[in-house]
Design brief:
The complex is a heterodimer.
Chain A (H helix, E strand, L loop, with lengths): L1 H19 L4 H8 L4 E2 L2 H22 L20 H17 L3 H9 L3 H19 L3
Helix pairs in contact in A: 5-6
Chain B lengths: L1 E2 L6 H22 L5 H9 L5 H21 L11 H17 L4 H10 L3 H24 L1
Helix pairs in contact in B: 2-3, 5-6
Classes of the chains: A mainly alpha, B mainly alpha.
Chain lengths: ~140, ~140
């Protein structure tokens, strides 16, 4: 059951990335480009996403078990703001700004046959492997 | 700042965003999982025990574009970065999202929707870094 839910939500998520236009790195850069011609679209993607997800997460938080799979509900609860969180996010933000690509859109653009997205994804997976080798 | 009205796509952005939120909320409510792409990928690479749902989510993510292209025109994708930049960007994104424990989906949509202070700090950090990076690469160098 969990697998089917994951597959279906993966499909919806992918459609969301395609329809929102966020698979296009030029649009992401357009949003990050505050000093130039600014494209506010990404702000509305986030607004639409958060507005839709918030009631569902509030419902999920109140439950002891997951609604369909009846497993113990185990959403993250940590509130610790530490150096890996901030440092890692800063590194991610630099990479995101350089190419305009974050993990989800990178995978979708690659699946659409973009050879440049393929290069990005290989480098991203390499970065994730490097993380395993480094001290935490 | 000048708003780029030609590129601004408010309705598709809202609709696509709503779908991202729906997918994230449903995955949490129905299966208790966070729809963070970097976390899902990282877990697969670490060969963790819960591989099945991770693989299924990614399968849905990757196969949907193929169906989309069979029926609709391909999405507009313009990647301006050259190969060395793409490699550096990819390495930074891979490393950074694992250190920071999330990306635009995990911290951005899922984290902010469950009012996580940790995710708010992460989002503020990567947004700021993104703004500054584009400022430097597009306006100063």
């Amino acid at each position: 059951m969990q697998t089917i839910v994951a597959l279906l939500t993966g499909v919806i998520f992918s459609l969301g990335l395609i329809i929102s236009g966020m698979v296009n790195p030029a649009k992401v850069i357009g949003f990050l480009n505050l000093a130039g011609q600014w494209d506010p679209s990404l702000a509305l993607v986030m607004a639409g996403g958060i507005a839709t997800a918030t009631p569902l997460f509030m419902w999920a938080k109140r439950r002891q078990q997951t609604l369909l799979t009846h497993e113990k509900m185990a959403l993250p609860t940590s509130t610790i703001i530490d150096r890996p969180l901030i440092g890692g996010s800063l590194l991610f933000g630099i990479g995101w700004g350089l190419a305009g690509i974050c993990p989800g859109p990178g995978l979708v653009a690659m699946a659409m046959g973009e050879s440049k997205a393929f290069i990005f994804v290989i480098a991203m997976l390499s970065g994730m492997f490097v993380f395993r080798l480094l001290p935490k | 700042m000048q708003i780029d009205w030609l590129q601004f796509t408010p309705w598709s952005a809202l609709l696509g965003g709503a779908l991202l939120g729906l997918a994230s909320g449903l995955l949490a409510l129905l299966a208790g999982k966070i729809a963070g792409i970097s976390g899902i990928l990282g877990g697969l690479l670490n060969a963790q025990s819960d591989m099945q749902w991770r693989a299924a989510f990614l399968l849905g993510l990757i196969f949907t574009p193929l169906f989309w292209m069979a029926f609709k025109t391909p999405a507009d994708i313009q990647i301006t970065a050259n190969t060395p930049t793409l490699i550096i960007a990819g390495l930074l994104v891979g490393l950074g999202t694992r250190y920071g424990n999330g990306c635009t989906s995990g911290h951005g949509i899922c984290g902010l929707s469950r009012f996580s202070i940790r995710s708010l700090a992460a989002v503020a950090s990567f947004m700021t870094a993104g703004f500054i990076t584009v400022l430097l690469t597009h306006h100063l160098f």
